[in-house]
Design a protein that fits this description.
246 residues; single chain; alpha+beta; 8-stranded mixed sheet; two-stranded antiparallel ribbon; disordered N terminus
Length: 246
Protein backbone atom coordinates (compact mmCIF):
# COMPACT_ATOMS: atom_id res chain seq x y z
CA UNK A 1 0.00 0.00 0.00
CA UNK A 2 3.01 2.26 0.29
CA UNK A 3 3.58 4.66 -2.58
CA UNK A 4 6.74 6.29 -3.89
CA UNK A 5 5.44 9.75 -4.63
CA UNK A 6 5.31 12.39 -1.92
CA UNK A 7 2.97 15.24 -1.20
CA UNK A 8 4.54 18.43 0.10
CA UNK A 9 2.68 20.14 2.89
CA UNK A 10 1.77 23.68 1.85
CA UNK A 11 1.60 26.31 4.58
CA UNK A 12 0.31 29.85 4.78
CA UNK A 13 2.76 32.48 5.95
CA UNK A 14 0.31 35.39 5.85
CA UNK A 15 0.81 37.75 8.76
CA UNK A 16 4.24 36.46 9.77
CA UNK A 17 6.58 39.40 10.34
CA UNK A 18 10.22 39.42 9.31
CA UNK A 19 11.26 39.75 12.96
CA UNK A 20 9.86 36.28 13.61
CA UNK A 21 12.64 34.66 11.59
CA UNK A 22 16.19 33.99 12.73
CA UNK A 23 19.09 32.34 10.99
CA UNK A 24 20.80 31.90 14.36
CA UNK A 25 18.21 29.46 15.66
CA UNK A 26 19.13 25.79 15.39
CA UNK A 27 16.31 24.26 13.33
CA UNK A 28 17.93 20.99 12.31
CA UNK A 29 16.12 17.78 13.24
CA UNK A 30 17.72 14.42 12.57
CA UNK A 31 15.97 12.34 9.91
CA UNK A 32 14.78 8.96 11.11
CA UNK A 33 15.22 5.95 8.84
CA UNK A 34 12.01 5.91 6.78
CA UNK A 35 10.99 2.34 7.60
CA UNK A 36 11.55 2.87 11.32
CA UNK A 37 9.69 6.18 11.37
CA UNK A 38 6.70 4.69 9.53
CA UNK A 39 6.61 1.71 11.89
CA UNK A 40 6.88 4.01 14.90
CA UNK A 41 4.08 6.27 13.63
CA UNK A 42 1.74 3.35 12.92
CA UNK A 43 2.41 1.80 16.34
CA UNK A 44 0.14 4.51 17.74
CA UNK A 45 -2.78 2.62 16.18
CA UNK A 46 -4.28 -0.80 16.93
CA UNK A 47 -2.83 -3.29 14.43
CA UNK A 48 -6.18 -3.81 12.68
CA UNK A 49 -6.28 -0.13 11.68
CA UNK A 50 -2.75 0.34 10.40
CA UNK A 51 -3.00 -0.82 6.80
CA UNK A 52 -5.75 1.68 5.95
CA UNK A 53 -4.12 4.69 7.65
CA UNK A 54 -2.21 7.46 5.92
CA UNK A 55 1.37 8.00 7.07
CA UNK A 56 3.50 11.14 6.85
CA UNK A 57 7.26 11.12 7.35
CA UNK A 58 9.31 14.16 8.31
CA UNK A 59 11.84 15.48 5.82
CA UNK A 60 13.92 17.89 7.96
CA UNK A 61 14.50 20.08 4.90
CA UNK A 62 10.91 20.23 3.60
CA UNK A 63 8.38 19.17 6.23
CA UNK A 64 6.03 16.24 6.39
CA UNK A 65 5.69 14.18 3.22
CA UNK A 66 3.06 11.59 2.42
CA UNK A 67 4.56 8.09 2.53
CA UNK A 68 1.47 5.87 2.69
CA UNK A 69 -1.89 6.83 1.29
CA UNK A 70 -4.83 6.03 3.56
CA UNK A 71 -8.45 5.08 3.00
CA UNK A 72 -9.91 5.24 6.52
CA UNK A 73 -9.51 8.92 7.40
CA UNK A 74 -6.83 8.07 9.97
CA UNK A 75 -3.48 9.84 9.65
CA UNK A 76 -0.27 9.00 11.52
CA UNK A 77 3.09 10.68 12.03
CA UNK A 78 5.86 11.16 14.58
CA UNK A 79 5.65 14.68 16.00
CA UNK A 80 9.07 16.26 16.52
CA UNK A 81 8.15 19.87 17.33
CA UNK A 82 5.91 20.76 20.29
CA UNK A 83 5.07 24.39 19.61
CA UNK A 84 3.56 24.90 23.08
CA UNK A 85 7.01 24.43 24.67
CA UNK A 86 8.43 27.52 22.92
CA UNK A 87 11.67 25.54 22.79
CA UNK A 88 13.20 23.61 19.89
CA UNK A 89 14.72 20.25 20.74
CA UNK A 90 16.01 17.32 18.74
CA UNK A 91 14.89 14.69 21.24
CA UNK A 92 11.08 14.88 20.99
CA UNK A 93 9.37 11.81 19.51
CA UNK A 94 5.58 11.57 19.72
CA UNK A 95 3.94 8.91 17.52
CA UNK A 96 0.26 9.74 17.12
CA UNK A 97 -2.67 9.22 14.80
CA UNK A 98 -5.72 11.40 14.26
CA UNK A 99 -9.13 10.44 12.97
CA UNK A 100 -10.69 12.40 10.09
CA UNK A 101 -11.84 15.30 12.29
CA UNK A 102 -8.43 15.66 13.93
CA UNK A 103 -6.61 15.33 10.61
CA UNK A 104 -8.47 18.39 9.30
CA UNK A 105 -7.66 20.47 12.38
CA UNK A 106 -5.04 19.46 14.94
CA UNK A 107 -2.81 17.63 12.45
CA UNK A 108 -2.55 20.76 10.30
CA UNK A 109 -1.14 22.67 13.28
CA UNK A 110 1.55 20.02 13.82
CA UNK A 111 2.52 20.04 10.16
CA UNK A 112 2.60 23.83 9.95
CA UNK A 113 4.69 24.05 13.13
CA UNK A 114 7.26 21.69 11.62
CA UNK A 115 7.39 23.67 8.36
CA UNK A 116 7.70 27.04 10.10
CA UNK A 117 10.52 25.71 12.27
CA UNK A 118 12.33 24.39 9.20
CA UNK A 119 11.98 27.75 7.49
CA UNK A 120 13.74 29.46 10.41
CA UNK A 121 11.06 30.80 12.73
CA UNK A 122 12.20 31.01 16.34
CA UNK A 123 10.55 28.86 18.97
CA UNK A 124 9.07 31.84 20.81
CA UNK A 125 7.79 33.37 17.57
CA UNK A 126 6.29 30.03 16.53
CA UNK A 127 4.27 29.79 19.72
CA UNK A 128 3.01 33.35 19.27
CA UNK A 129 2.15 32.70 15.63
CA UNK A 130 0.11 29.59 16.35
CA UNK A 131 -1.65 31.30 19.27
CA UNK A 132 -2.51 34.12 16.86
CA UNK A 133 -3.81 31.74 14.21
CA UNK A 134 -6.13 30.15 16.76
CA UNK A 135 -7.36 33.57 17.85
CA UNK A 136 -8.06 34.50 14.22
CA UNK A 137 -9.82 31.16 13.62
CA UNK A 138 -7.29 30.14 10.99
CA UNK A 139 -6.93 27.09 13.19
CA UNK A 140 -10.01 25.67 14.88
CA UNK A 141 -10.80 22.74 17.13
CA UNK A 142 -12.76 19.81 15.67
CA UNK A 143 -16.47 20.47 15.40
CA UNK A 144 -17.43 16.99 16.59
CA UNK A 145 -16.20 14.33 18.97
CA UNK A 146 -13.19 12.32 17.93
CA UNK A 147 -10.03 10.58 19.04
CA UNK A 148 -6.28 10.67 18.68
CA UNK A 149 -4.65 7.27 19.08
CA UNK A 150 -1.43 7.20 21.09
CA UNK A 151 -1.03 3.54 22.02
CA UNK A 152 2.59 3.28 20.87
CA UNK A 153 4.87 1.42 23.32
CA UNK A 154 7.02 4.48 23.92
CA UNK A 155 7.20 8.20 23.29
CA UNK A 156 9.43 11.04 24.43
CA UNK A 157 8.21 14.48 25.44
CA UNK A 158 7.31 16.49 28.53
CA UNK A 159 5.35 14.27 30.89
CA UNK A 160 4.86 12.76 34.32
CA UNK A 161 5.99 12.46 36.96
CA UNK A 162 8.08 15.65 36.90
CA UNK A 163 6.80 17.32 33.67
CA UNK A 164 10.28 17.22 32.22
CA UNK A 165 11.23 15.56 28.93
CA UNK A 166 11.08 11.82 29.59
CA UNK A 167 11.00 8.61 27.58
CA UNK A 168 7.76 6.93 28.64
CA UNK A 169 5.78 3.75 28.05
CA UNK A 170 2.31 5.24 28.46
CA UNK A 171 -0.10 4.07 25.74
CA UNK A 172 -3.33 6.07 25.87
CA UNK A 173 -6.22 7.55 23.93
CA UNK A 174 -6.95 11.26 23.64
CA UNK A 175 -10.56 12.32 23.06
CA UNK A 176 -11.11 15.86 21.81
CA UNK A 177 -12.38 18.10 24.61
CA UNK A 178 -11.77 21.74 23.57
CA UNK A 179 -12.57 24.16 26.37
CA UNK A 180 -13.17 21.40 28.92
CA UNK A 181 -11.29 21.43 32.24
CA UNK A 182 -10.66 18.85 34.95
CA UNK A 183 -13.09 20.78 37.14
CA UNK A 184 -15.79 20.29 34.51
CA UNK A 185 -15.54 16.50 34.79
CA UNK A 186 -14.61 16.34 38.48
CA UNK A 187 -11.17 14.93 37.77
CA UNK A 188 -8.24 15.46 40.13
CA UNK A 189 -5.11 14.12 38.39
CA UNK A 190 -1.80 14.22 40.23
CA UNK A 191 1.00 13.64 37.76
CA UNK A 192 3.22 12.37 40.55
CA UNK A 193 0.69 9.70 41.57
CA UNK A 194 0.10 7.16 38.81
CA UNK A 195 -3.09 5.78 40.35
CA UNK A 196 -4.75 9.20 39.94
CA UNK A 197 -4.26 8.94 36.18
CA UNK A 198 -6.07 5.65 35.70
CA UNK A 199 -9.39 7.35 35.07
CA UNK A 200 -10.22 10.09 32.54
CA UNK A 201 -8.61 13.48 33.06
CA UNK A 202 -8.06 16.59 30.94
CA UNK A 203 -4.75 17.58 29.41
CA UNK A 204 -4.67 21.15 28.04
CA UNK A 205 -1.90 21.31 25.48
CA UNK A 206 -0.99 24.97 25.34
CA UNK A 207 -4.43 26.48 24.85
CA UNK A 208 -8.04 25.56 25.66
CA UNK A 209 -8.77 24.63 22.04
CA UNK A 210 -6.20 21.87 22.34
CA UNK A 211 -7.64 20.15 25.40
CA UNK A 212 -8.03 16.39 25.40
CA UNK A 213 -9.69 13.86 27.69
CA UNK A 214 -7.00 11.25 28.39
CA UNK A 215 -7.71 7.59 29.01
CA UNK A 216 -4.72 5.37 29.76
CA UNK A 217 -4.70 1.86 28.34
CA UNK A 218 -5.24 -0.81 31.02
CA UNK A 219 -2.35 -2.78 32.48
CA UNK A 220 -3.17 -6.04 30.66
CA UNK A 221 -3.54 -4.30 27.31
CA UNK A 222 -0.38 -2.29 27.92
CA UNK A 223 1.59 -5.44 28.71
CA UNK A 224 0.45 -6.98 25.41
CA UNK A 225 1.44 -3.86 23.50
CA UNK A 226 4.90 -3.92 25.05
CA UNK A 227 5.33 -7.59 24.14
CA UNK A 228 3.97 -7.23 20.62
CA UNK A 229 6.21 -4.22 19.91
CA UNK A 230 9.44 -5.59 21.40
CA UNK A 231 11.18 -5.54 18.01
CA UNK A 232 10.19 -1.91 17.47
CA UNK A 233 11.43 -1.00 20.94
CA UNK A 234 14.77 -2.67 20.21
CA UNK A 235 15.08 -0.87 16.88
CA UNK A 236 14.29 2.51 18.45
CA UNK A 237 16.79 1.91 21.24
CA UNK A 238 19.41 0.95 18.67
CA UNK A 239 18.66 4.10 16.70
CA UNK A 240 18.97 6.50 19.65
CA UNK A 241 19.78 5.55 23.21
CA UNK A 242 17.46 8.26 24.55
CA UNK A 243 14.55 6.18 23.20
CA UNK A 244 15.61 3.18 25.31
CA UNK A 245 13.31 2.34 28.20
CA UNK A 246 14.87 1.86 31.64
Amino acid sequence: MKIKWVLAIAISLVGVGRSAWSQAVETTIDRMPAKLEAQFALSALPKALREQAAVYLLDPAKGYQLSQKGTSGLTCLVQRTVWEMADFRNDIYIPLCYDAAGTKTYLKVIMDAAALRIQGMTAVALKAEIDNRYQKKIYVAPEKAGVSYMIAPVFRTVGPPDMKVNTMPMPHLMFYAPGITNADIGAAPNLGVHSSLLYPFIDKQGIAEQSYMIQLIGDAEKAKIMTDEKDLLAALCGYRTLLCLP
